[in-house]
């Protein structure tokens, strides 16, 4: 059974993440969405809220596809999390050159920690490529409309948070 781990902060989950999740789901038998607790980043939504939003967004996808989708919070090393959930591959999304620099270093380091786990990069559709949680939060904070970037429930949560 091919198990993939898609890790991130998902603060909050966007249509960019969903695009990657849909693509990842077609490559594995079981997809584990790893939600980094990331206290240092001072997330807008706490872990329970982020997990609930991901579960809600993935429910329909899990029903439509044959695969199992599991949401798994983690605070340890990514490689250890991959081992814990039995993942052979780590899936990451790539947006622009800025992502590449960071991901390049991560792959290099992770390979030295465990050479048996492969990292696979996916790109979202053009209209989803520029979406970043950080910018979505910034736009929502300033009263802008983010409904093109996130699902309706996530939009509601952002509106509720920022009034
Ligand atoms: P991180 O804090 O590690 O960047 P994120 O939650 O921001 O975590 O992102 C998780 C993963 O999803 C990363 O691999 C990131 O590059 C990818 N990702 C986020 N938004 C997009 C997008 N619009 N298109 C493609 N990949 C994306």
Order of SSEs: EHEHEHEHEHHH
Q: How is the biggest beta sheet arranged?
A: 5 strands, parallel
What is the arithmetic mean of pLDDT?
Answer: 95
Radius of gyration (CA) equals: 15 Å
Distance between the termini: 45 Å
Topology overview:
Layout: E1 3-8, H1 15-25, E2 30-36, H2 47-64, E3 68-74, H3 78-85, E4 89-93, H4 97-113, E5 118-122, H5 126-129, H6 133-141, H7 152-162
Parallel strand pairs: 1-2, 1-4, 2-3, 4-5
Description:
The protein has 163 residues and is α/β, with parallel strands linked by helices. It has one domain (3-126): HUPs (Rossmann fold, 3-Layer(aba) Sandwich). The chain is built from 7 helices and 5 strands. It has helices at 15-25, 47-64, 78-85, 97-113, 126-129, 133-141, 152-162, and strands spanning 3-8, 30-36, 68-74, 89-93, 118-122. Strands 3-2-1-4-5 form a 5-stranded parallel beta sheet, with helices on both faces. The relative contact order is 0.21. The mean pLDDT is 95. Bound molecules: adenosine-5'-diphosphate. Adenosine-5'-diphosphate binds at residues 8-10, 14, 16-17, 20, 92-93, 95, 99, 124, 128-129, 131-133.
Summarize the model shown.
It contains 7 helices and 5 strands. It has helices at 15-25, 47-64, 78-85, 97-113, 126-129, 133-141, 152-162, and strands at 3-8, 30-36, 68-74, 89-93, 118-122.
Task: Pick out its properties.
5-stranded parallel sheet; single chain; 7 helices; binds adenosine-5'-diphosphate; alpha/beta; globular; 163 residues; Rossmann fold; 48% helix
